[in-house]
Model the fold of this input.
Amino acid sequence: MTNRSRPRILLIGTGDTKADELLFMQRCIDDAGGEAVMMDISVLGDPPYVAAHDKNAVAAAADTTIAAVIASGDENSSMTLMARGASRLTRRLCDEGEIDAMIAIGGTMGTDLALDVALALPLGFPKLIVSTIAFSHLIPPERIAADLMMILWAGGLYGLNGTCKAVLSQACGAVVGAARSAIRLRPDRPIVALTSLGKSCLSYMVELKPQLEARGYEVVVFHTTGMGGRAMESIAAHRGFAAVLDLSLQEVANQLMGSVVSSGSDRLTNAGRSGIPQIVAPGAIDMVDFPAWLPVPAELGDRPFHAHNRLLASATSRPIDRRRIARAIAAKLAAVNAPIAFVLPAGGIQQWDRDGEPLHDPEGLDAFVTEMRDAIQPPVELHEIDDHINDTGFVAKVLTIFDRWVAGGIIPAGAIHTEQR
Done:
């Protein structure tokens, strides 16, 4: 939480085109008990106010000048340079304790820049974007910070009106409130990321989580329905974990199969790039997700199907697709220069693929296991077991690897508190 009586809110926007909105937001922030710190990201024009951080400062943070930004080619190249400068400058202001939160406003251009700024900020630092494309599929998963807040700029553009004011005032109140109450992430134990897919599909976390906590770790579970994996990847990219137990890879399969329930093309890569040790398993890679309120995709129309709720449904992929998914997983792991162990549960990889369940497909499972067995190559450790992924034997294997890596110094030792002893 901020120690200031009036939290400083960095307010980012193009003051040459959105001065009315930005000045209104400045008043809203002040009325809510905050102090607006203006950052102008205009390129061609100038705002009718003096910004604490003007466009020249933003350009300088990108190691360039406004003249060079203008001469760079077009609006896309210009705003890309300004995004680099705004991201660097904002991160520096955050690290130096000059600001307590960030809010930005924009259409597609301003949103593009604001997404980069949000990604540059640490987890727990309040970040909010007011955008004409909030929640749009135009925004790829890779661009979304783990704890980003967004609100649709309803009634926006071309001046203020009652609808616009209602949205902007709400956003400003929200970011001031977040700045006052947000607790920065300062863990007293090493953090372990654990991916899963709820208790009904993948239940290993019920046993695994308390076992890791008893060893002195803070365990953060990510639900792999698109944004969960995105959050995990975003934090891993900033080296936010001591270890990653990435045991549900359905989002990798979804992305490869063209599903909108995707975490982006960098899924299963950021922990390795950051040097974080990983234990990986293929939880639920046989299922392809799609919105339950749309028709079943034609290519999945003849496949076993499960409707989880009115939002999410899944169909199983064909054996040939599972072989392709296995190769894609192996390729991602092979590109990593960090300790990785892959646990291959030959008895099944999600609850509904058991005998008698609606997604039981022994041919497809065998195709995946066979391909995976051949595709995994050293230095990646391969641990094939006969158990189902929801069996106790799977948890035991994961913990055996984890404990060995702790003993070998690959994973930092847990911090056992006095009250836990």
